[in-house]
Amino acid sequence: MILYWHGGTCVSLESAGSRLVTNPFSAEKEPKEEAGVVLLSEPGKKHSAKTAFVVNTPGEYDAKGFFVMAALGQNDNLDYTIEAEGIRIYYLAQAKEELSDERLEGLDNVDVLIIGAGDSRDGNEIAAKIVNQIEPRLAVPIGFKETPITFLKEMGSGDIEAQNKLVIKKKDLPQEETETVVLKIT
After folding, report:
1. Which residues make Cβ contacts (< 8 Å) with residue 105, sequence separation at least 6?
2. Does residue 143 sit in helix, strand or coil?
3. Alpha-carbon distance 152 to 21, whole Å?
4. Percentage of the chain surpassing pLDDT 70?
């Protein structure tokens, strides 16, 4: 599986010849390929993708090689659990406050957490607290314009070189502690 960040809260996942894109309307650089599945964080928001399977309401969906669970989260936005290739990803576009115990139920065994860290110190700190609540194998901050220094410091990651893409293989995921990966906008 390959993960790209397109700016804002837009990421794309490529798995077994299919592509899933989150919040394409927030992209700073349009994803290069057509999406087979589009996930929108704002419930009921429309998207013009004619060929894509669009998810904009809570529920469970099995589309084009991706199993997606959409649930109402903070600020009545949708959060997503995405499964493909035996990898479990939790996508949280906005991290406004720590997750409640109720929301944490069912979020065990998250391999990759994609989390909106934003540009504010508070946003970075809250995102880091949520990472510590979920304890994923990989944490990928998004939604920032400048490197999320406070987030990286809170995660104990220091200075990390941003990558163009993240290739995710179940067998290569860290086993002990959460590793942080910063992506460039592509």
Report:
1. none
2. coil
3. 25
4. 99
